[in-house]
Amino acid sequence: MSTRYAFVGLGHRAQMYVDALLGDWRDTGTIVGLCDVNTTRMAYYTERIGHPVPCFAPEEYGKMLELADAVVVCTVDATHARYVVAALDAGLDVVVEKPLTVDAESCAAIAEAAERNPGKLVVTFNYRYSPRNSAVKKLISEGAVGEITSVHFEWALDTIHGADYFRRWHRERANSGGLLVHKSTHHFDLVNWWLGAAPELVFAQTDLRFYGQARPRGPRPERGQGAPGLGSDPYILDISKDERLKRLYLDAEHEDGYIRDQDVFAPGVTIDDTMAVLVRYANRAMLTYSLTAHAPFEGYRVAFNGTEGRIELEVCERAWTPPHAAVDPSAASKEHATGSWERLVLHRHWQEPEQVPIEQGGGGHGGGHGGGHGGGDRLLLDDVFRGPGEDPLARPAGYRDGIRSVLVGVAANRSADTGLPVRLVDEGTRLAET
Question: Rounded to whole angstroms, how far apart are CA atoms 413 and 416?
Fold first, then answer.
């Protein structure tokens, strides 16, 4: 049976789902409606689809829902809840980009809508499907190191990827919840899923040390286009060099005024770039987590201490970045995997370390390997559009998973603001009353 899909939010993240329905998953559904604040962006996707598709302004969202069986939500994070709730109340299924939403109030609204309606709500946590992360889940599930007592998790965003959050709408916490919600939702969900346990207590410290006006830097341009350093300053993005970004944003900014290439050191940044979080889980495991958004390389390290040993996963997604790739986004995408590697090591008590092979491309209906997020995107898309099959790793994520991951970030922000620990209740799906 072919599903009728409508899309709300036509920025760059929507393309993965649009292209899936035009490509390998075209037998699963058709695109019947597009909704965005910007007609130029909708025109870009209409051209990509190859035939006319009804287009709607946000105030016409309800009309679009009448045409569809399911909605894919890729809007600004702070607007997710309104579109998710309306679609569920209209009886539709919903696929929503992470994070599910940005605050406790909208988490509660989504939960209530999901519980009163029959529609399925899927949060697209593609990192669960990355073969290396699935391999970790398998080791833990098999009891390879006994009961997990603690997790040490460090994530480094480099000065291409990390910097980009400070050019876009994400730079304002009101839009994105900050990186502890927008970005770390991936990481907190991984830990929740790896441990199979609910977070209960969160304490955090955060700061803005690098971007915005954290340090004196002298005169800076407001944006990339027309800036004196365009083409030479590695922190100034030339959005005109990338055809897709140009058409989605530069050519579209006359409609809504959204500037995609703001200077990363310009005023107005209300999110942090340096974060440290402690989380205690219902099973007594403890997480120490850090996120840095101005590293010279991109990747992560995670270690699990257990009663019978230790698991260590190290991932380098990009070893370094030449300055020209930071200036030109098309070059950056081509060189994203420069020097990439991954290593999974099992340390059992009284035994020599064992390097565990990471099987690429397994676990999905379609098999194969490749795609973004460590090979996870294709496997995720298979579950989204064809429906999940039997999965002993329980990778498909529902709304409660989305809420848990968001609320760890929300609690961390609150803790950093107040200097106090924050409790989560109801299996990590609600903040405790203060």
Answer: 5
Residue 201: strand pairing partners: 280, 423
- Count of beta carbons in the 10 Å neighbourhood of residue 418: 10
Q: How far apart are CA 112 and CA 109, in angstroms?
A: 5
**Distance of alpha carbon 284 from alpha carbon 259, whole angstroms:** 45
Residues 6+ apart with CB under 8 A from 418: none
What is the reported pTM? Answer: 0.94
**Nearest CA to 196 among 25, 61, 395, 414?**
395
What's the pLDDT score for residue 94?
98
* Pairwise CA distance, residues 176 & 165, whole Å: 10
d(CA 414, CA 409): 9
Side-chain half-sphere CA neighbours of 171 within 13 A: 23
Cβ pair 221, 236 in contact under 8 A: yes
pLDDT (tens digit, 9 = 90+) per residue, 56-93? 999 999 999 999 999 999 999 999 999 999 999 999 99
Residues contacting residue 265 through CB under 8 Å, at least 6 positions apart: 211, 212, 213, 217, 220, 235
CA dist 375 and 142 (Å) reads 23
Q: What is the per-residue pLDDT for 334?
A: 53
Q: Which residue in the block uniquely carries the two structure tokens 């850090």?
A: 290
> What pLDDT does residue 323 have?
84
> What tokens were used for 352?
């020599």
Contacts of 419 (CB under 8 A, 6+ apart): none
Question: What pLDDT, on the 0 to 100 scale, is given for residue 363?
Answer: 40
Residue type, 176: S
What is the pLDDT, as a whole number, of residue 143?
Answer: 98
**What integer pLDDT is reported at residue 389 of this predicted model?**
85
pLDDT at 192: 98
**Residue that the structure tokens 């959050």 belong to:** 165
Write out the DSSP string of 108-163. Answer: HHHHHHHHHS---EEE--GGGGSHHHHHHHHHHHTTTTSSEEEEEEEEEEETTHHH
Other CB atoms within a 10 A radius of the CB of residue 217 amount to: 10
DSSP type of residue 180: H
In which residue are the tokens 């990338």 written? 242
CA triple 234-243-46, angle to 5 deg:
140
Residue 6's beta-bridge partner residues? 33, 71
The token pair at 242 is 């990338």
Query: Under a CB-based contact definition with an 8 Å cutoff, are residues 176 and 77 in contact?
Result: yes
* CA–CA separation, 255 and 243 (whole Å): 19
pLDDT given for residue 172 in this prediction:
98
Query: pLDDT below 50 — which residues of the chain?
Result: 362-370
